[in-house]
Amino acid sequence: MDSANLKLRRREELNGHRGMVVWFTGLSGAGKTTLARALAERLERAACHCVVMDGDDLRRGLCSDLGFSPQERAENIRRAGEMARMFAEAGMIVLAALISPYRADRARARALMPAGDFIEVHCHCPLEVCEQRDVKGLYRRARAGEISEFTGISSPYEAPEAPELRLDTAKLDLAACTERVLAVLHEHAVFSRGRRP
User: 80, 88, 111, 143: which sits with the fewest CB atoms below 10 Å from its CB?
Assistant: First the structure.
């Protein structure tokens, strides 16, 4: 075993869990960030090392130079994927909440991780429900033509074909969604024996 892998194994033993990427995808307003933060709270209460990577935060900082063309969206997800990989290699559970509308971009992010260390969670929510939620007023502005290339309105969203988990966030409450994600993490043996967030 090389020194990098040895360090990672030691880190995982100390943390009581493996490094992992949980990638939440879905329309704006589908509940990705809300779910990622609720999950982070549960994990932190169990002394797990995790980080929430929110798409809006990345757009304000690391990716503030990018627009919303398909090429710029691809670069946005490339950067997010690389960042998620680095956190996971440091032994953290990464909760990445990004619209990430294109399947090919999400596939590239998955390919950065070892098999089994990337869990795609599709937060499925009908467009009309996302528009009703619209706390930021983005859908209203997109419908008015004030925002171009807005996912779900003037730009496509390619739903995952085979995510590890699909959640109907219009029907399931936050607690139920959180429990389902935790169940998938347990199925993937992310936590050491006896660790139960």
Answer: 111
